[in-house]
Amino acid sequence: MATTALGTVTEENPRPEDANTGQPVVKDVAVPAVTASTVMQEAGDTENEPRKRSLWIAWLYMFDWYPSHLSKEESRFLRKLDAFLLTFCSVAFFLKWLDSSNINSAYVSGMKEELKLYGNESNNFGVILGGYLQSAAYTNLNGVHGMAGWRWLFIIDGCISLPLSIMGYFIFPGMPTSGKPWWLSQDEYELGQRRMRDEGVEEPKKISVQMLKRLFCHWHWYVGVLAYVLFLSGAYPHGQMSLWLKWQADNWGTYTVPQVNTIPTGAQGVSVIAAVLATSLCMVYPTWIIFQVVMAIFMFANICQMIWFIPHGLHFTAYYLFGVSAAVTPILVPTVNYWMKDSAEARAFCTGSMLTLGFAVSSFYPIVVFPVVEAPRWKKGYIVNFFFILGCWFFLSLGFFLIRKQEKRQKERALVDEEDLKGSDIQHLD
C-alpha cells in the first residue's frame, strides 16, 4: 500500500523494484481518495449534511427539532430521549423552584403577621412560581382544620414533590457511560455513546491533581465561575415583585392578597418564553449575539428600578423584564461546558464549582444587599446589582472572545499538522 497526493493505492502483488535503488516504484495513479463519507456510503449509511440556512429566516429552524438530515434511527432515539428527559426535568425544575420559593408566597399571604417576621428573617428565598397555588390555598383552604392557607402550601408542595422523586429514580438515565437504562434498546444506547464520541466528548475519568493543575492554569474555570456567581446573585430581584405589590397594598390598599400572589406570575411567564426562545435561537444564531440581547434587557430592568422614580407602568414592565434573566443559565452553563468538552472531569469540577460558589455567595447576598426592611426600594441594592450584572456580562463576553481565538489557533495547528503529514507520506521520484 502506498499513499500519494491523489489517494491510496493497494496492490496484491509486490511492485517492481527500481534497478538502481532497489526501492518500490510508485506510479502516479489517480485513485479517488477514501474519506469517512465514502466509507459510510459503502456501508449503507448515507451522511447527509444540514441544509444551508438563510440568515433572515434562520429563526424558523428553531422549530425543526428533528432535522431531515438525521437518520430514522437517530430521530427515533432523540424523540425517546426527549419524551423521558424533558418531561422529568421540566417538572422537576418547576417543583424545585416551587419548593424553594413557597416561603415568599407565604410571606405575603399572612405568614409575616402570624410569625411576626418584621425584620430580615425571610430574606433567603427566591422567585415566586407558586403564586397561583398559594392564591388557591389562601382562598379555598384558609382556616380548614384550623390551619392558615400559607401552611397548606407547604403540605401541597410535599405531596407533589414526593411522587416525582420516586419516579426520577426509575426514569432518569444518568450519564451515557453509566449503563443502559431500561427504556433504551442496546442499539439506541450504543448510538448515544457514538454521538458523544463524534462530538469529541471524552469518557469521564477520575479527577486527578494533573487535571486540576491544567484547569487552574487556563482561563475557562475562572471566567465560567465568576460569570455564574455574579449572575446568580444579580438575578435576585427577579421574583420580588410581590413585595412591591404588598407595599402598595399596605399603604394604599391597591391590591388584594390573591392579586399580590397572582400578578407576579406574569414575570414567570416571561421567564418561560425567554428561556425557550433564547435557547432555541442559539441553535440557529451565534450564541454570543443572543447573550448580548438577553443581558441588555436584564440590565435595562435593573436600571429602571435603580432610578425608581418612574411611571407606574414602567415599574410593572421592569419587574416583568427581570424574567428574561431566566434565559441566562441555560446559555451560560452549556457554553462553559462546551469550552471544556474534551475533558469530562474538568466539566464536572467546573459545574460543581459554579453551583457551590454561586449559591454560597447568593446565600448572604440578599441579606446584605437586599434586606427586607428596605423593600421594595432598595437604594444600594440595585446599585450593587448593576455591577454584578455588568460583571457577568463582561466575563462571559470575554469567554466568547477567548474561545474564538483558541478555536482559530487549533484550526491553524490542525492544518499545519495535516500538511506535514501529507508531506511525510508522499514519495517523489526524480
Automatic annotation (TrEMBL):
<protein>
    <submittedName>
        <fullName>Vitamin H transporter</fullName>
    </submittedName>
</protein>
<feature type="transmembrane region" description="Helical">
    <location>
        <begin position="348"/>
        <end position="370"/>
    </location>
</feature>
<dbReference type="GO" id="GO:0016020">
    <property type="term" value="C:membrane"/>
</dbReference>
<feature type="region of interest" description="Disordered">
    <location>
        <begin position="1"/>
        <end position="23"/>
    </location>
</feature>
<keyword id="KW-0812">Transmembrane</keyword>
<feature type="transmembrane region" description="Helical">
    <location>
        <begin position="263"/>
        <end position="282"/>
    </location>
</feature>
<keyword id="KW-0472">Membrane</keyword>
<feature type="compositionally biased region" description="Polar residues">
    <location>
        <begin position="1"/>
        <end position="11"/>
    </location>
</feature>
<keyword id="KW-0813">Transport</keyword>
<feature type="transmembrane region" description="Helical">
    <location>
        <begin position="382"/>
        <end position="403"/>
    </location>
</feature>
<dbReference type="GO" id="GO:0022857">
    <property type="term" value="F:transmembrane transporter activity"/>
</dbReference>
<feature type="transmembrane region" description="Helical">
    <location>
        <begin position="289"/>
        <end position="310"/>
    </location>
</feature>
<dbReference type="InterPro" id="IPR036259">
    <property type="entry name" value="MFS_trans_sf"/>
</dbReference>
<feature type="transmembrane region" description="Helical">
    <location>
        <begin position="150"/>
        <end position="172"/>
    </location>
</feature>
<keyword id="KW-1133">Transmembrane helix</keyword>
<feature type="transmembrane region" description="Helical">
    <location>
        <begin position="215"/>
        <end position="236"/>
    </location>
</feature>
<feature type="transmembrane region" description="Helical">
    <location>
        <begin position="316"/>
        <end position="336"/>
    </location>
</feature>
